Amino acid sequence: MTIVQLSSGPLRGSAEKGIHVFRGIPYAEPLQGAARWLPPQPRRPWSELRDATRYGPACMQFGSRSALRFPKTRMAYLRALGGSIVLEEGDDSLLLNIWTPSVDVGAQLPVMVWIHGGGFTAGAANSFYDAARFARKDVVVVVIQYRLGPPGFLHGSGLFSGELCADNRALLDQVCALQWVQQNIAAFGGNAVNVTLFGESAGAFAIYQLAASPRAKGLFHRAIAMGGMAQTCAPADDYHALTRDVLGEVGVAPGDDEALIALDSEQVKRLQAAIGKRIFRGKPMERYGVLGREKVSFLGAATATEFLPESPLDCYAKGTPNQIDLMLGTCRNDGGLFSLALPLPRSWSAKLFAPNLKGIVPGGDIVKMQACYRREMPDAAKGEVYDRVNNDAFYRMPTIRAAEAHAVGHPGRTYLYQLDYPCTLDGLGAIHGIDVALLFRTAPVDQLIGTDAETDALAEGMLAFWTQFAKTGRPSAPSMPVWQPFDSTTRSTMVLDRASRSVFDPDGHLRRYWR
Asked: In this structure, what are the phi and psi dihedrals at residue 100, rounded to the nearest 5 degrees?
């Protein structure tokens, strides 16, 4: 048993194999009634010893559970990403977990804050992200939860009274959690002036937006964005038009505060379906501006707001509010996720998904881009070509653009990587989530990686890169190549694999099509 004293009250955690672990710590008030639609409120203090030895409930989940019959390999992949885990949901879910090697207030250890993925519709801070491996590298790790789906991302400032349905609530949850870290992390041995955000997929999307937000200024100092994109945002007015329409589908009119607050869980989940229907199948799309053109932004941040005055890429070139160090990258086949979305041959699924990306392809011509890639990949099957275009459109090129922009405003402080290590499941390659498997090595995601010595060496090398970056701002590892900063001239990129290597402008022949 480990007891710490916070400004909010005493807390009891557990000691597990030399690491102190605290689970289910509340950083904000429960999401009951109107609070579901309001910005987060810091947690009120407690007087009695609070138990923090168990995970708390998850925020409301919106990930779909398909009844369709998928091929065996795809089912194995989805299960490995937690598709078979049923999470307990609850109102008191704005929680965080902490792993630390020391509870000495003078330890001044670097702090790493993990933001989970799940498409902003699913996921939680649970055993999937047990961070003991990181804590054994002398860092304090905080894993946070935040609102998902409509409670977090149905932006509607000005449509109701006061701050009801305020824009960017999920991201304000994350800011609230970071403020809690600033106030309390010393009790867990952490240094509040050396905080690194890291996250994958939706967690990376959030990091890009937090890095550009004045509201997050001073709350973190470095960031690691894994398999995300910086462009999941749109002007607040576009979101407000969408919000008016989807709320109408459950009988809530702008200004009707009581009707919004009275929505039950099933009605809130219907809102998620209504958003998807209007963005992906609705017409005319001009009504939703950027959201109609760039469908990938339908769950993301609202710009032209206090939280995010401008888009991240515009902000980075001028220098982020925090002047942060940034490490960012993708898996080589992150986009293979889209070829698994339907119970069809993978090439068909990838081809059917591709039109959703035309708004972020130069000229909006996805077919032309596919033809360009076929010329550059003459020996590849059509499915491989579609996968690669989807990957580059959604993940790789937005990540490179973010690196380019950040390197302008922060010379020598940008580090780009690409993970090429292939998944153990046949034909999936270095697919989305393989980075999480290598870093955390927890069940069930560890089913995606091997148990051989080369895999172990890569996992240890990545862990060293990540934790050293958190400590110093420079990723380094004794057994790995030297990692040079990225700039738009050399385009230095660390390729992580069984035999990692530093490469200049990998696949530059494909990048030229995205200018």
From this structure: -145, 145
CA 152 and chain centroid, separation:
14
> Taking the complete model, does pTM exceed 0.90, yes or no?
yes
Among candidate residues 455, 454, 414, 416, the one with its CA nearest the CA of residue 438:
455
Q: Phi and psi at residue 115, in whole multiples of 5°?
A: -115, 115
Report the half-sphere exposure of 489 (CA within 13 A, side-chain side): 3
Contact residues for 395 (Cβ-Cβ < 8 A; gap 6+): 227, 228, 229, 330, 331, 334, 335
Helix, strand, or coil here: 21?
A: strand
Name the nearest CA neighbour of 400 among 510, 293, 302. Answer: 510
SS3 385: helix
Whether 479 is in a domain gets the answer no
Q: E strand or H helix at 211, and its extent?
A: helix 202-211
Expressed as residue numbers, the domain containing 341 is 2-62+69-474+484-514
Residue 70 burial (10 A CB sphere; 0-12, 13-18, 19+): middle
The one-letter code for the residue type at 267 is Q
Cα torsion angle, 237, 241, 246, 248, sign = positive
Residue type, 262: A
DSSP state of 42: B
Q: Is residue 229 part of a domain?
A: yes
Q: What is the DSSP code (8-state) at residue 431?
A: B
Domain containing 92 — which CATH number? Answer: 3.40.50.1820
| pLDDT (tens digit per residue) in 71-115 | 788 889 988 988 767 889 999 999 999 999 999 999 999 999 999
Each residue of 449-459: pLDDT tens digit?
999 999 999 99
Instruction: Return all residues near 141 (Cβ < 8 A) that are at least 6 apart.
Output: 98, 99, 100, 111, 112, 113, 114, 131, 134, 135
Classify strands 301-303 and 109-115 as parallel, antiparallel or unpaired: unpaired
The reply to whether 192 falls in a domain is yes
d(CA 113, CA 75): 30
- Quick check: is 462 in a domain? yes
Domain count of the fold of the chain: 1
Q: Are 492 and 417 in contact (CB under 8 A)?
A: no
| Percent of the chain surpassing pLDDT 90 | 84
Give the relative orientation of helices 236-248 and 265-281 as an angle to the nearest 10 degrees. Answer: 120
Q: Of 160, 173, 247, which is closest to residue 210 (Cα–Cα)?
A: 173
